[in-house]
Design goal:
There is one protein chain. The chain contains 3 helices and no strands. The model has no long low-confidence stretch (mean pLDDT 75). The radius of gyration is 25 Å and the shape is elongated. The chain is an all-alpha fold.
Length: 77
């Protein structure tokens, strides 16, 4: 309902014609498809969060060094 109300107010208060409804449709259609498909089933469980969380990379062996250079490639005079 909030989306529809915002769309109605935006269309009435804007002089751009069909630009507001067209932009809203680009956002609302995927949202409505996701909601219809059952995307809003509640908060994820701890196991789902744990499975989706990134894992730390394995540690480098002691005889290896990672060198990262950031900044300009110009030589300082």
């Amino acid at each position: 309902m909030a989306c529809l109300l915002s769309l109605a107010v935006g269309t009435a208060g804007n002089d751009s014609g069909v630009a507001v409804p067209a932009t809203a449709a680009a956002l609302l259609v995927p949202l409505l498809v996701w909601l219809t498909a059952g995307g809003a089933s509640g908060p994820p469980s701890r196991d789902e969060v744990r499975a989706a969380s990134p894992r730390p990379a394995p540690a480098e062996p002691a005889d290896r060094v990672t060198v990262v250079s950031r900044g300009s490639t110009d030589r300082n005079a």
